[in-house]
Design brief:
By secondary structure, this protein is mostly helical. The protein has 4 helices and no strands. Helix content is 54%, strand content 0%.
Length: 76
């Protein structure tokens, strides 16, 4: 089993997988089914860099939300 991510690596992984949902993001970040530990560590990592995050959804950017709702748009 891989070790759970911490700090900026955790934030990056969580942000990249936030649209997939809490369970998937927790697993991909190395927390398995321990959702409470994942959320605690994510909030702590964000606090340490001065970012206020209350839920995983707070990490979803406007661009990610647009892609999720309308599909990927290719810019030329």
């Amino acid at each position: 089993m891989t070790s759970a991510l911490k700090g900026i690596e955790l934030i990056d992984c969580a942000r990249a997988n936030a649209a997939q949902g809490l369970e998937t993001a927790a697993q991909l970040c190395g927390y398995g089914h321990d959702l409470s530990m994942f959320e605690h560590e994510l909030k702590q990592a964000c606090f340490n860099i001065g970012v206020d995050v209350q839920t995983l959804g707070d990490l979803i950017t406007d661009q990610q939300a647009l892609i999720q709702s309308r599909g990927i748009v290719e810019l030329k």
